[in-house]
């Protein structure tokens, strides 16, 4: 594969970045319904990887993960990752009836959530209107009005995690739970890597800009060699993260034989890198970075949250086949 974007993909990234620069709010604690609607209606982000026969755009998961990187860069709350996990789980394990019934709703931008039955908190379960779950009896669609979702407190307040109780919930058979779970795990890992990569890029970009403006001893602090070296090391981490993330995105999107390997490598490396970059960003911003008025604490919280969203870096490293 070539780690370079096509002209169409580059235009997609630029369009999403421009919109998020105007409308994104990193300090929001819930996703902006108006922004989400605009992303879905004008850019079609939720429909990118869904086949045209199900009202999708007919592109691929790769393009959707590029959008996810931009959402990570803007550090805004968004239900895109959860919706991608559900759509890919349906494409992998859903039966024909479930695909026909649910994929058009996902393509239109309906907020969705997926419970893999692991007992872990479920992302966006408290705001989803379309709920998919893996059970011992198979993959099922769950009526969200009959399930109980209790939101958990999180370090990153933009992240919606909920404990989901399906006892007594109304369900409809939807397909093969094992196939759906396998695909969902890979998409979740690749998605977290994309979010972490975007976040790292944003934190480094802001740090470099600050180092050019902040003057100490009569010179911009970015001119001091010690700080140059530290930012150069962070630049390497960001670029390596992007390479790992794009490789995982392409492998998972194309269903390559080594997709699981690349997804786990990327999830481990990119989240570890995000922790390092956002931590260094706080140090290099000096005293201003430990105030609530600055966004540095938001980057740091998001980085920590991403290390748990699809499993810890240690868990992903343990799954890498040597």
What is the count of helical runs?
10
Please tell me the total number of domains.
2
How many strand segments? 9
* Distance between the first and last residues' Cα: 21 Å
Whole-number radius of gyration? 20 Å
Q: Which fold name fills CATH's third level, the topology of the largest domain? A: Butyryl-Coa Dehydrogenase, subunit A, domain 1
Roughly what percent helix? Answer: 55-70%
Order of helices and strands: HHHHHEEEEEEEHEEHHHH
What is the CATH superfamily of the largest domain?
Acyl-CoA dehydrogenase/oxidase, N-terminal domain
So what's the oligomer here?
single chain
Give the overall average pLDDT.
94
Strand order of the largest sheet: 1-3-4-7
CATH class of the largest domain: Mainly Alpha
Under the CATH scheme, which architecture of the largest domain would be assigned?
Answer: Orthogonal Bundle
Report the principal-axis shape: globular
> What structural class is derived from the secondary structure elements?
alpha+beta
- Beta percentage is 5-15%
The stretches of 5 or more residues where confidence is low (pLDDT under 50) are none
Q: Summarize the main sheet.
A: 4 strands, mixed
